[in-house]
Amino acid sequence: MLTGAGVSAESGLATFRGPDGLWEGRDPMELATPKAFDRDPETVWRFYAARRAAAAAALPNPGHRALVLLEEALEDRFLLVTQNVDGLHERAGNRRLVRLHGSLWRLRCTACGEEREDLDLETLPLCECGGRRRPGVVWFGEALPTKAVEHATAAANEADVVLVAGTSSMVYPAAGLPEIARRAGAHTVEINPERTDLSDRVHERIAGPSGTVLPALLDAAGLGAAR
Ligand code: BJW
Ligand code: ZN
């Protein structure tokens, strides 16, 4: 299972490239870069504080809950690879989860690399080493966490079925995982109300919101009661 921001849209969180994706009139893609943080750390910090506040106020939706039932049914034959940093999959109850783009709730020191998640997140913090702490997410041009990529790639190579929900499939290397799975023999299914760059490269496309489609799939497989 691969997810993106669209899975949290029905929880009220803005997607990156969607119609309500702007924050204070700015494109999030221009804030989610190391350059933006170097140039204007306060603004980037406020952007992430706002994202954390929105995520904390949001609740997992039926799409998130369906993926918990799927994990419970499949156990170690299930892996959820997410690009999301909002923590809603974790709060819904998924445990077999790989975060490709980090987490809104972790901080990392730009100088010594130390990671923490128990800090006051209101103001831009400094590390004990004097370095500046930054959101523990992966920005454009930065490497994804090695272990997460290895785990996700291995799962793509071994999967029988890969569901891809709520992602525009524009951002690599995450967007390349369904192709890896397809070449290794998996059946690939895209769940998205809109067509994407991936749409012509999957075996099946289910046009609709994940909060409706995922529970319906679970129902059809006899694993329902996701609502
Ligand atoms: C619904 C719905 C509903 C709505 N139900 N669906 C190959 C070619 C060209 C460029 C590259 C390449 N490989 C790498 C690159 C560069 C770059 C890249 O991919 N650029 C592309 C834009 C072209 N990649 C990187 O820089 C990555 N790093 C890297 O490659 O490092 C190399 C390296 C190696 C060694 C050393 C150093 C470097 C890093 C990418 C990091 C992405 N980070 C972000 C920000 C995270 C922090 C934050 O949250 O602020 O991750 S960007 C942003 O995009 C975020 C997302 O996870 C990611 C993907 O977005 P997502 O989830 O797909 O959201 P949207 O908004 O795009 O789409 C939502 C979808 O939902 C839409 O399709 C809707 O229709 C749908 N939807 N409602 C279901 N109810
Ligand atoms: Zn430090």
CATH superfamily: TPP-binding domain
Strand content: 15-25%
Rg (CA only) = 18 Å
Low-confidence stretches: none
CATH class: Alpha Beta
**SSE order:** EHHHHEHEEEEHEHEEH
How do the strands of the widest beta sheet line up side by side?
A: 3-2-1-7-8-9
Helix content: 25-40%
Brief sketch in words of this structure:
The protein has 227 residues and is an alpha/beta fold.
Features:
single chain; 227 residues; alpha/beta; six-stranded parallel beta sheet; three-stranded antiparallel beta sheet; 9 strands; binds ligand BJW; binds zinc ion
Question: Can you offer a commentary on this structure?
Answer:
This protein has a single domain (2-220), classed as 3-Layer(aba) Sandwich (Rossmann fold), CATH 3.40.50. The chain contains 8 helices and 9 strands. It has helices spanning 28-31, 34-39, 41-57, 62-74, 88-92, 146-158, 177-183, 210-220, and strands at residues 2-3, 80-82, 97-99, 102-109, 115-116, 133-137, 161-165, 187-191, 204-206. Strands 3-2-1-7-8-9 form a 6-stranded parallel sheet, with helices on both faces. The protein has a 3-stranded antiparallel sheet with strand order 5-4-6, covered by helices on one side. β4 (102-109) and β5 form a beta hairpin. The longest helix is centred in the first third of the chain and has 17 residues, at 41-57. It is globular. The model has no long low-confidence stretch (mean pLDDT 94). Ligand BJW is lined by residues 4-6, 9-10, 15-18, 32, 83, 85, 101, 137-143, 165-168, 170-173, 192-194, 196, 209-211.
